[in-house]
Structure formats: structure tokens, C-alpha cells
Batch of 2 targets.
Target 1
Amino acid sequence: MVSRVLEEIKKTIMQRLPSRVHVAKVEFEGPELVIYTKNPEIISENGDLIRELAKDLRKRIIIRSDRSVLMEPEKAIEKIHEIVPKEAEITNISFDDITCEVIIEAKKPGLVIGKYGSTSREIVKNIGWAPKILRTPPISSEIIQRIRRTLRRNSKERKKILHQLGNRIHQETKYENDWARLTAMGGFREVGRSCLYLQTPNSRILLDCGVNVAGTDEKTLYPFLNVPEFAPDNLDAVIITHAHLDHSGFVPYLYHYGYDGPVYCTTPTRDLMTLLQLDHIDIAYREEQPLPFNVKHVKKCIKHTITLDYGEVTDIAPDIRLTLHNAGHILGSAMAHLHIGDGQHNMVYTGDFKYEQSRLLEPAVTRFPRLETLVMESTYGGKEDVQPSRNHAEKELIKTIYTTLRRGGKILIPVFAVGRAQELMVVLEEYIRTGIIHEVPVYIDGMIWEATAIHTARPEYLSKDLRDQIFHMGHNPFISDIFHKVNGVDERMDIIEGEPSIILSTSGMLTGGNSLEYFKWLCENEKNSLVFVGYQAEGSLGRRLQKGWKEIPLKEEGKTRVYKVKMDIKTIEGFSGHSDRRQLMEYVKRVSPRPEKIIVCHGDNYKTLDLASSIYRNYKIETKTPLNLETVLIQENG
Ligand SMILES: [Zn+2]
């Protein structure tokens, strides 16, 4: 059946391309259509034609050269350096024999692409190899290097995976799409282990697959993948909305237990998710509570991941089209829009989202082509969950820093590595650069540095304001020299004994990690300040300090030592990556078109129920608040 579809497509392509073009082969690679040709230069000169063809065929089209026209690599490298301006700062060139692509890594990838793609067209015209252009981040990222290496080394296997997937996606549908249902597999009336299972007569999709980081046993840690209707080996696709472990942490397990299909997410989500998954495995191993999967499965996940940009419409099953849209929560976070059948049903799953402009990101998208079912989070869905504005939060932060520095103290800010840390870096950089707080070193400890490096590799996902700064004003706040990476214990001691400074360190709730070490050194001096900018869970040290505990017993090398807390403890609200109650309600009001049904997830029991009933009362939209393991019929039979 696939070959028939492909034959039809090939016929259309031949008719539309100029007759001089020699098409060697047309095939599916995952959701994309690949045309191999002996005259890539002619096709590349007809960019509009390809764009129109893609639109009419409703496929993403990639042009590759037939092997017979490839220039010898050594000569090709010389030629590339001739064509590309020096200012592009190429850092690496490698060749992929399998896909006939040349991978060019450069500090300014825009200059390798050229205006409207002119430079990259020039490259293919001259050397035959189709250029794949990647950004060399200004802060080097180990994770991105590792991912690129894995993909390069496994190019042959990857091509096979994509080829098989392409055939699966482009089958004709077997049944009429007359129903669709959604099962709550985790993260309903709770926060953690988010997982939704969508079934239609033709396909099965998993949306998010997280762990509950605060879980204590098997019953609360992982999603309910043991329901009888779920089997990893007949799943069509997994969609990950963002990198936080409560949304992505259990994906490697799927690969351990027979899943062999794709993961769809944005590029930053892939990078950050890999960082967090590897760290999770590492910590669990050190704490002697190993996870039911390992590094091998993370690698398998990388090989199966297909990255999508916001707004890119993609076939992921014979009857389902996926489009990701900005969710404003962390870098690369997305809302997933699913177009089912011939538009019989359209649903949006928000994942975690922020409906407010932040320093780092634009607010969540509210416009969709069609929408019947909205599945939304309710982390701050309770009536009382109204947070101060960003502006107010920033002022509070600056005030605290100012007064602490004036009395000669240090400021410790425990933060989660991804999201809040970078938001704060942008704020601090601006206030120091403009002289509102005087220049002090800002120390970046632990995984925050690597997460920041990933931010510098994907500037196109940042807010418009930051993109303008980076691309047009040549000013990248993340690489400012006020920031210092902390390497090891010795440097930490120097910081403790040194001049006033600001320290950003993980973990965000002082449950372990270097932030706890800094706390021990700093807490008994009344000049210092501890600032919480994120949620502190019940039972964490952070929460106890917020409650005003003045004596903290901590275990050290088998003995317990009591720390007297003399440092100033401050909590600043308003930096959250989640929408507060007002923003959630405003989002429902603004989302367009107006959904017929809203399913509320990702919140404590009371908050989920409170938000759902308020939505119904205010907007008269039907709401549902399923428990884990419940199924909701989103598109009714008939
Ligand atoms: Zn999140």
C-alpha cells in the first residue's frame, strides 16, 4: 500500500519538476519525503517550486544528491571554505555517506545558509553534498556534542529506523475515524509522572512519559504503563512536550521494554531531556537506588528522536498530524496540537505552560486552526494561587541582593538547573550591566552551566527581545563575563571565603547537591541571604527554612550536626514557569477557537477540581477531571 502512495507521489514530482532534473529515487524517511537527484543544483534553484510541491503533497520534502555527483571530501572542504565567508567561523565539517550530506558546524550558521539560502545552494551546486548546517554554541555543550556524535556514528541505523517509520506512517488508514479516547496514565489530580494515552481506531499515541521525582515507591514513581490496553510494541508515536523529568523521565524505559518507534519533540527538548535523564540515572546510581533503565536506553531514545520546529505540521500516524506550538514554560517547551482523521477531532495538550511574557520566552500560543478538546495543566489552579507579576518579582530580588551586598554578605539562590536559573541569569546580567546593582561575580554551579550552554545553542527558541539582543545587537547575556563556572570543591571554598557574590546552585529545594553544601557554609553568618525563587515541596529542607526553622540537624559522615540558621531567608514569588490562577483562566478565555471540552490535569486534587469548576461556572465549557486510569471519550462514536 505504501508503494502505491509513493508511486503516486513520484508521478506528481516528475510532472512538476523541470524535465532536465534526473530523479534517481523517492522515498520516505520518517515523516519526510526524500528526493534523490543527479542534479541537485537545478532543484535548489527552484526553491519556490519545492515549497509549492511540499504544500500540495502535504509533506516535508528534503532534496539529496545521488551518490554519483558527490565531490571528493577533501576537495569539497576546500570549496566550502571558498564559498562561505570567514565570519561564519566554521568549526567542523564532516560527511555522512549514508545520507549524502555534509555537516557544517559554525558559530554563525546564518552566514553558511546565506540570504534566502543562497550560500547553501551555492555549496550543493558546487560539491553535490547537501549541507546540513548546525550551530556551534558560544558555550560548548557536552550534551550536544554527545548527541551529534551518537547521530553521526549511527547514521546507517538511523536511516533504517526512519525508512521503516516512513512506511508505517504513510500506510492507508484501515478503519473509519469515528471515535477517539484519552486515558489518564499519570499526572492526573497530582503533579508528577505525566502521561496520556490517545487511541483512535487506527493508532495509539503516548503524550509525555514522566516520573514522579518526589515519589517514594513503585506505586507512585511511574505512570500506569501496566494497563492491559497498553503495549510499548504497538505504539505509533511518543510526543514529549518538554524536558522536565516529570514529563520525559520515563521515556528510556519504553525503549527497554520493546518500544522501537519515534519520539517527537523540539530540538531543545531533546537536548535538555537527555541532560536530565542522564543526570537522573547518575544520581539514582550514586544513591544505590538504580532505575529500571540505563544509559543504553537514553542513547536508543536519541537515535529514535525526530525533532520538530514550532508550527511544523507533521504526519505521525496514518490518521494523525502533529504540530508543536510554544508553551512559554522552559526552552523548547511545547503544546501539542493533534489533528485526527480528516479533521474529525482536534485536541491540544498544553503540557506545562506560562501565559505571560518572561525574560526568556514568549507567552504560550493561544491560536490553533481547530480545537475541540483542550487538555490543560492546573499546577497553580487553586483560587489562592495568584502570584505577583514578573516585574514585581524582579524588584524584590534586586532589593534583597542590594541590601545583602551592602552589608558585605553573599546571596545563595538554590535553583532547578533548567528554566529558572537562566531566567535569573538574564535578569542579573541586565541589572549589573546597567549599574543598578554594582558588579559582583555570579557563580554558576552544577548542571546549570550545561543547561545554559544548551540555551546558547538554540537562540531561535528564546524570546523576541533576547533574540534581538543576540542576533542584531551582538549582545548575548549568557556569555557575559560576570558569570563564572564553578569547578570542584577547591573553587567552592574560595567562593565561601571570598568577597561578596551571588551563587546559583542546584538542587532547587536544598534536598542535596551543591546548594546544600553552600547552605552549610553560609547559614551561620547573619550577613548572608538565602533566596527561594521556586516551589519548595513539603518535607524538603527548603520548606522547613521557609517555615522559619532556626536549627537544622544535618547528617555528615554518619554524625548529626545542628546548624544554626542566622542568614536571612527570603521567598520571592512570581518567577514561576507555570501560569498562575489568573493566567490559567485568562488562557481559557483567550484560546481560539473555543474548545467544546476541557480536561484538567497536572495539579493537586483540590486545585484541579477548583480550576475545572471555575472554568465551567465562568465560561460554560464542559470540564472533566479524570483520575489516573480513567478514560475519557473525546470524540464520540457516530
Ligand atoms: Zn515542567
Note: The mean pLDDT is 94.
Target 2
Amino acid sequence: METKQLYQKSMSYLKTLCEEIPERCVGSEGNRRATSFFERELSSLGWQTEISELDVIDWEDGGATLRVADQSFNVLVSPYSLGCSVQAPLINASCLEEIEQQEITGKNLLLSGEIAKEQLMPKNFVFYNPDEHRRIIALLEQTRPAAIISATGRNAALAGGVYPFPLIEDGDFDIPSVYMTEEEGKKLLSCIGKLVMLQSRSTRIPAKAYNVVARKGKNLDERIVITAHIDAKKGTPGAIDNATGVIALLLLAELLKDYDGDRLLEIVAFNGEDYYAVPGQMDYIRKNQEYFRNIVLNINIDGAGYKEGKSAFSFFDVPEAMRAKANDMLAKFDGITEGIQWPQGDHSIFIQYGCPAIAVSSQWFVEHIESQEITHTPKDNTDIVDCRKVIEIAEALNWLIGK
Ligand SMILES: [Zn+2]
């Protein structure tokens, strides 16, 4: 296919995914539109598609207010939290021990300092969940404060570019919570022991979402799985994270539409990388427990197509023969370079199951993972995308696996 045609296609996909569909967070109408669009495109290109229905929750953020006497503080509702209307004394903890040593039950608990340095992993998240996080969550559930107010700093590596970031983002955790900036937290610290009025209008809405898997080829014993998450964080168009990944899959599906090689190719639009319960990923794992050993390679695209710098391919335990071919690919495609290994992303699932993987992203993002302030914010929009880079990725992958 002509590069010009591919360019027009990619631009139209970008418009559909980031502009015509206003949001793609799991549980939203836009998310369902995006997955059905993806399924239709793949199916029209002759891929055999399979859809899994997922039970999820959508979330409505009605805002929150926090008052101590006649002083009010700026707070945000933690995503997927339960709402509340409580009046209770304020207590503070900055580490696990301080939660253990105080009478917490029924009080408004301010978490600040050390304990609020990084987002706590959702309680049912299985891929990465430090003991420290599990202990904090378990202790909170045991001691049951009336509500949790967290004061969080900047932590781009773990929270994207979001400041302040919600310490808790977990629809399975039932203690209402809100969050605020570090500065606001410092002001609130002077109110320890006083009565805090917290009102949070946050609603969980049961909803459906879909995971889409498309296949081509016959050999079930040797599979290459190419993945990109189709969901985006609420409140962002998710252009680089991860409409471009989905566009790369769509273009690749087109380039491979006459594929007749001796491996099974599987293209997966994962639904949930940016959602607390990663439902699409969990569903895929459940269905493929027995088949991971047949996966000879995972290629996961996330964060690709940023306007600055090259595209980065990072390699994880890729066997020699495939690695040699990948090196030829790097030499052939000028805009692609080898990237450092980065663990966050759906490729980590395959690595954990012992499959070789290639993670595809933008070099700029991989190198600025600690400091960038774009991911998960409204700044992640179509203005920062260069579709030519997405096309180059699709062409390179077609070259790598297409025969
Ligand atoms: Zn992502």
C-alpha cells in the first residue's frame, strides 16, 4: 500500500479515536465505540475476530468539598472511589506504624509524607504489588477510617504527568477517598484533631467493556501476539497513550491482510492497561493459561509516535535468530532505534509468562519517564503525534514478522 494512503488512513484513525470519540476510559460509551470500531476494521481486513465481554465499572466524578470550620480546602475525588458525606475528627499518618499506633476507626485520615510518595497498587492487581502496598491497604481496611484524604507530590514515573496524583485508584477498595496537593496537605496538617466535613459526590456505575482479539494463520503451536491497549485514562484523549498503538495495529493488520506465513498471528486490543482492574488483560490470561508456551514473541506498542525523537524498540529475552533479524530491521528503518528496557506496560505480562517480548514506544518518553508531564493529562492530544512514525513502526513490524 502506498505511503500516502497509509498516511491518510492513520490520520483518519487518529481523528476517530481521539476526537470523534471523546474518551476511551474503560466502562465509558467511547470505550465501547472504540472497541467495536477496531473489531469492524480488523474483520473487514479478513482477520478472524473474537470479542470478550467484561464486567467493569464506570465512574462519575461529581467533585468533593472539604471544610474545617469555615476554612475550605481543595480536594479531588479519587477515581472509582465511593462517595461520602462525613463529619469526623482529623488524624494524620505518614507511615504504616503511625496507622497502627493510633485509633483510626471512624476518623478522617490524612495520609501525607512518606506513605503518600507513590500510588498504591489496586488491591486485586496481581502483576506488580509490593508487600508495603498490600500491608497499607489491609491495615486501612482493618482499621476503617471514615474517609481517607491523601496529600501527594509529583511522581511522573508512577503517575504519568498528573499532579497531585490520587494515592488510591481502586474500584475494589471501599473506604471513600479524596486527594490534594502537598501544599494543601501542609495547611490541613494544622487542623489535626479538629472536625473535618468531607463531602464527595462520586458514583460507581456498572458497565460493560470488550476485549478484541484478531487472528490470522493456522499454526496454533507458534504464535506471535501483537498488542496495544485501546483504553485511555479518564480526562485525556490518550493520543500517544495509546491511540497510536491501536493505529499501528490497524495499519499492521492492513499490511498483513494477505499474510500466509507459518505462524499464527494474533492482534490484541487490550482493554484496561490504564484501568485499576486491568480486565482485558486478566481475561486474556485466563483464556490463555495453557497457551503461553506457544507464544514465540509478544510485540507491545504503547507510547509510540511522539513528534520528537525516534521510535524505540526495547528487547526482552528475544532469541538470537529473531534478534538478528530485528537488528537488520533497526538498520533498515532510520526512524527506529533500540530503546532501554522499561517494565510498565502489557509486555510485562508476556515476560512474566516466559515469552520473549519487544516493547515499542517513543524514545523521548522512555527517556523522560521520570520527568514528563504529558501522560494521563489533556496534553496527550493529537498535536503531539507524528503519524509518519506510526506508519514506520507498522512497516517495520510487517517486515519483521510478515513472512
Ligand atoms: Zn499506556
Note: The CA atoms of residues 229 and 270 lie 4 Å apart.
